[in-house]
User: Fold this.
Amino acid sequence: MSAPRLKSKLLVQAGLRQCMALGIMATVVRSGDDDAGAVYLKINRLGPGFTILALAREMDGSLAWLSRTGDAPVPEKEADAVLERERRIDPDIWVLEIEDREGRNPLEGALFL
Assistant:
């Protein structure tokens, strides 16, 4: 039996609140399925480029953020292409855009994960 899962809409709302508490600008740029839509972060480094992270479940059932764009930031056009490919596969995705010069993931290790 698998562990209970937090609904996607609640996870995104919690992420917005976490960003607000840290003073980081965040916006939902795509709303997906309220219950089970995959969640992606589009981190805007405000100059150097963008990073796309996907929330995924590890083998042990824990949640982790996996980069969909590699280690280095990519141009916005390339980041948007990654998200468009994901949207074509699963039209129910959520995308939360975060603006942070350092490219930090403010949701990493958050209590709701």
